[in-house]
Design brief:
Catalyzes the addition of meso-diaminopimelic acid to the nucleotide precursor UDP-N-acetylmuramoyl-L-alanyl-D-glutamate (UMAG) in the biosynthesis of bacterial cell-wall peptidoglycan. Its EC number is 6.3.2.13. Belongs to the MurCDEF family. MurE subfamily. The protein contains 16 helices and 24 strands. It has 486 residues and is an alpha/beta fold. Helix 10 crosses helix 11 (312-320) and helix 12 packs parallel to helix 13. The strands form four sheets. An eleven-stranded mixed β-sheet has the order 9-8-7-10-6-11-12-13-14-15-16, with helices on both faces. Strands 17-18-22-19-20-21 form a six-stranded mixed β-sheet, sandwiched between helices. A five-stranded mixed β-sheet has the order 1-5-4-3-2. The protein folds into three domains: 3-96, Udp-n-acetylmuramoylalanyl-d-glutamate--2,6- Diaminopimelate Ligase, Chain: A, domain 1 (3-Layer(aba) Sandwich); 100-320, Mur-like, catalytic domain (UDP-N-acetylmuramoyl-L-alanine:D-glutamate ligase, 3-Layer(aba) Sandwich); 330-484, Mur ligase, C-terminal domain (Protein-Tyrosine Phosphatase, Chain A), CATH 3.90.190.20. The protein has helices at residues 3-6, 53-58, 85-96, 115-128, 157-169, 181-185, 207-210, 213-225, 242-245, 292-307, 312-320, 348-361, 382-393, 409-417, 434-444, 473-484, and strands at 14-16, 25-27, 37-40, 63-66, 78-81, 105-110, 133-136, 140-143, 146-149, 174-178, 196-199, 232-236, 252-257, 264-272, 275-280, 283-287, 330-333, 339-343, 368-372, 396-399, 428-430, 450-454, 461-464, 467-470. A hairpin with a 5-residue loop joins strand 17 (330-333) and strand 18.
Length: 486
């Protein structure tokens, strides 16, 4: 693409050099710079891209976008000075790939919990309705039947536009995308045109990055503040922060709820481990998904699909045949009569939701054994909170390792234990080795008991000192059960 076309609608402070030149590709990592590329120097949280301008030029970059011009300018290179490189990057990426987010319907889902579930359920619902779509989630990126492994909740903006352009080329009309707080803060959704934005909930998470809850809230709100008036913003009216998301948005405002009046209202009529009987806007249906938090997830799916112009009966028909999302309240029963639940719950709110959902279903004759931990190099303040929740709401809690990353697992466990109240001291034990912790849970469980293994869900690895070791909770449970039941 010609540089002048690439710079369309981008506020430029200064340009030095030839503007009418061909650009072969966009890069913001100097190691990927090559002949004819445009290198965007972005100031990141770890490194400043401006320090790598010279090495990008050496590798053949034809043009540079930066906030500060280098002291020495190469006469064969075009330098474009902008106020904010990371924002410019978003618009450059959209322009380079032909603004695909304006040509298909892009739906963004944000919130602390439920983003993956809602995005994946939307993708599946629209498949059931007969539409090819794209999915950009924590678990995977999909374009129709094609699956691409995911590395971040919200990929970089060049990757997003490339995937959307590919989806468009493959005939997709819709794209469903998780929008993380990190992605918003780092301008990884800049330049994208959203048709619908959905909000799930806001609870304690990512305070290692955002520092305060208020900053976390404002970051999420930025997504809604930036929506055009042609978009729809749909929020959870039962969440105390739901209305905050809509305060300054120009988008059409819609709500969903179970407890209060809303555009999309849901009731939970019956629930067990096999599924739920629900009523949405006066219409009853059955789903194999279970747990109150899934009522909210499905309500948001129902609301978004309705706002995209589909009939409520056809949406509920498509919802009723949905399968559960991988690692989200996945249940299976052993031949010994023990119920196992594997879930991704790794925040205090998510853990409380899953435990409450199980306690709503069980008759209290069965015991509930919970295996969980907390990730290393992440928000420390949620650790004692999760220790408190797990020991209060379980018969037995086994505290273990999650992804310790560069931290000492014993120290993480100590911080979790700090939240356990004295009356619950007898209700927990600590086993740092996750496999041994699951083994202990199986050994302790009797027929009809419920074993919840929380925190990793769909993940098939455990990260220890920068190395990812294969570890799959479902696989481990099945393997241990086979060995122990012989």
């Amino acid at each position: 693409m010609v540089l002048t076309e690439l710079l369309s609608r981008i506020p430029v402070l200064e340009i030095h050099g030839e503007q009418n030149r061909e650009i072969s590709g966009l890069v913001f990592d100097s190691r990927k710079a090559a002949e004819g590329t445009l290198y965007i120097a972005v100031k990141g949280t770890v490194a400043d891209g401006h320090t790598y301008i010279a090495s990008s030029v050496e590798k053949g970059a034809a043009a540079i976008v930066c906030e500060e011009l280098p002291e020495t300018l190469d006469e064969n290179v075009t330098y474009i000075q902008v106020k904010d490189s990371s924002k410019a990057l978003g618009h450059l990426a959209s322009n380079f790939y032909g603004n695909p987010s304006q040509k298909l319907k892009l739906i963004g889902v944000t919130g602390t919990n439920g983003k993956t579930s809602v995005s994946t359920l939307l993708f599946d619902v629209f498949s059931n309705l007969g539409y090819d779509s794209a999915l950009l989630s924590t678990v995977e990126i999909r374009i129709g039947e094609k699956v691409i492994p995911a590395t971040h909740t919200t990929p970089d903006i060049i990757t997003i536009n490339r995937i959307l352009a590919e989806a468009l080329e493959d005939g997709c009309e819709f794209a469903f995308m998780e929008v993380s707080s990190h992605g918003i803060a780092q301008n990884r959704i800049e330049g994208l045109h959203f048709t619908v934005a959905g909000f799930t909930n806001l609870t304690h998470d990512h305070l290692d990055y955002h520092k305060t809850f208020d900053e976390y809230l404002k970051t999420k709100k930025r997504f809604f503040d930036g929506l055009p008036e042609t978009a729809v913003a749909i929020t959870n009216a039962d969440d105390k922060n739901g209305s905050v998301m809509l305060q300054n948005t120009r988008a059409l405002k819609k709500t969903y709820a179970m407890k209060t009046m809303a555009d999309y209202h849901g009731k939970l009529l019956e629930v067990d481990f096999n599924g739920m009987l629900l009523n949405f806007n006066g219409k009853e249906f059955w789903t194999t998904l279970t747990g109150k938090f899934n009522v909210y997830n499905l309500l948001l799916v129902f609301g978004i699909a309705s706002e995209l112009g589909f009939g409520q009966d056809e949406i509920l028909q498509a919802i009723s045949v949905l399968k559960r999302v991988s690692g989200r309240f996945e249940t299976f029963k052993s031949d010994g009569g023990i119920f196992f639940v594997v879930d991704y719950a790794h925040t205090p709110d998510a853990l409380e939701n899953i435990l409450d959902s199980i306690n709503d279903i069980r008759t209290k004759n069965e015991r509930l054994i919970t295996v969980f931990g907390c990730g290393g190099d992440r928000d420390h303040s949620k650790r004692p909170e999760m220790g408190n929740i797990a020991t209060r709401k379980s018969t037995l809690a086994i505290i273990t390792s999650d992804n310790p990353r560069t931290e000492d697992p014993a120290q993480i466990i100590k911080e979790i234990e700090a939240g356990v109240e004295p009356q619950n001291f007898s209700k927990y034990t600590s086993i740092p080795d996750r496999k041994e912790a699951i083994k202990m849970a199986i050994k302790f469980a009797e027929p009809r008991d419920i074993v919840l293994v929380a925190g990793k869900g769909h993940e098939n690895y455990q990260e220890i000192n920068g190395v990812k070791h294969h570890f799959d909770d479902k696989e481990t449970i099945n393997e241990l059960w086979r060995l122990m039941s012989k």
